[in-house]
Amino acid sequence: MKDVFARLASDFLSAIIFLIIYLVTDNVILATSVAIAGAIAQVIYARVKGHQLSFMTYASLGLVVVLGAVTLLTNDPRFMLAKPAIAHFAIGTIMLKRGWMLRYMPPIVTETVPEYVTAAGYVWAALMFLIGAGTIVVASTGDLKLWAFYISVVAGGAKILAFAVQYIVLRLVVTSRRRAAARA
To answer: N or C, which terminus of the chain has less Cβ within 10 Å?
Structure first.
């Protein structure tokens, strides 16, 4: 669980940096420049430490640089605010692959209820698309406080709630099936 939150923080670090600096300084150019530099530094740091970098890491860096450049050229923060939506759409698309979630589950779950895990994977994909669409709607308003609330509370809370519901449902189903198998 700790690893999941660390990965989420890492994935959204440039957006977090952008938001903090923009809220403190009200300077789009400074916030965008520091966010771009932070994203580049994050990749360099990972490479120096010898960490394996995924496609998503490079895609995130590319988005920060491209959207950051557009933000700098237009002096409009909405482009940087839209970055998490693109990430959510990309992740949702990856989650449409049948059975993607099986490798993240403990053996007891994958052996007992693989069909539930596959269904949960599709539900997660739908959630990512929904959060991405919401992010674009909120980003288009240009209201940073609303965007910060949406990204941190609504989007983050939806993921935590979905994780909790998934955990409870899978635990109940696995327990039920194991009891039924023991009786038989």
So the answer is: C
